[in-house]
Amino acid sequence: MGNLPSITDLLGLCKLKVVSLILLTAVVGMLLAVPYLPNIFLIVVASAGISLAAMSAAVFNHVVDEKIDVKMSRTDRRPLPEGRVTRNQALIWGFFLGIVGIALLVIYVNLLTAFLTLTSLIGYAVFYTMYLKRATPQNIVIGGAAGAAPPVLGWTSIAGSQGIEYALLLFLIVFIWTPPHFWALAIHRREEYKKAEIPMLPVTHGLEFTRVQILLYTVLLFLVALLPYLTGMSGLIYLVSAATLGILFLGYSIKIFIEPENPHIAFKTFKFSINYLMVLFLALLLDHYLLMTFGVSS
Fold first, then answer.
1. How far is residue 22 from each of residues 109, 277, 293, measured CA to CA in Å?
2. CA dihedral defined by 202, 204, 208, 212, rounded to 10 degrees?
3. Same domain, 34 and 102
4. Cα 178 to Cα 20: distance, rounded to the nearest angstrom
5. CATH classification of the domain holding 102
6. Same domain assignment for residues 157 and 26
7. Structural domain of residue 21, as residue ranges?
8. Residues 2 and 141 grouped into a single domain
9. For residue 106, what is the DSSP state?
10. If pLDDT is split at 50, 70 and 90, which confidence band does 194 have?
11. More confident of the two residues 294 and 183
């Protein structure tokens, strides 16, 4: 019994900061799905199921990446590299989280959401982590589909397939956001990815090429983020927020491009990109409920 890991170490395998962002986008998807406040119990249980599935995927990611994590200062103090949790313990924990999460969705939500959540879990934990991450510098572009799924999962948990085209707009925003978000971090951690032999874009194609890609994707993100307004999904509050956030993100991307000698700008861009997505989705939510309650957004 003395060899059992602590709950702190088990939670350390779950990437709770990442899961919190996933949960935010999922809950926003839930609340945007209908023109009224959804059933609170359904929101809570769907949030729990999606979160547990995301935590499960994170655990499997830790297991697969254990040897890589040892080589990188960003990850070498995780529970597995330090021996605070064994691989078997991590696998049991990961399966437990995944089974409970999917079971909650099957029993209390709906089969569509359960199926899509399971597909995303497998896509991230198996297809991305075990294959794409090591196979191609486009790993984060292709694998980003799994990370972009939560707003769709949130939407379907409340509305099923009704209005799914609007949920796909949210998916598209997160999907296009993912490459500049991760490539900024990859520039900052280029030497570590190189040491770990992970074919991230700055390692395989160089820093200059990656900076150009970040800038191009940020321009594309600026345009894509306007689609909820252009399609009538949201109103002026969201439009102003999306435009402002997009201009700020473009500013960071331009600085990465024109100040290649600046050692801090890539990591600052990475941190801003997290705030960008959080505020953008909160703006969607604010716009939705102000319009629904007072009719002031559009």
1. 18, 10, 27
2. -80
3. yes
4. 16
5. 1.10.357.140
6. yes
7. 1-162
8. yes
9. I
10. confident
11. 183
The rounded distance, in Å, linking the Cα atoms of 157 and 187 is 37
Please say which residue of 162, 193, 212 terminates a domain. Answer: 162
The rounded mean pLDDT for the chain is 92
pLDDT at 249: 98
Q: Does 193 lie in the same domain as 127?
A: no
Answer whether residue 291 shows pLDDT above 80: no
Residue 298 — pLDDT band, cuts 50, 70, 90? very low
On whether the CB atoms of residues 179 and 213 are closer than 8 A, the answer is: yes
Quote the tokens at residue 161: 């397939």
DSSP strand E in 6-81: where?
A: none
Q: What is the mean pLDDT of residues 247-252?
A: 98
- Looking at residue 295, what is its pLDDT? 62
Residue 285: name the closest of 227, 233, 231, 230 by CA. 233
State how many domains the chain has: 2
Amino acid at residue number 154: G
Q: Are residues 128 and 218 in the same domain?
A: no
3-state DSSP of 118-159: HHHHHHHHHHHHHHHHHHCCCHHHHHHHHHCCHHHHHHHHHH
Task: Number of helices (H) and strands (E) in the chain: give both, helices first.
Answer: 16, 0
What predicted TM-score, i.e. pTM, was given to this entire model?
0.93
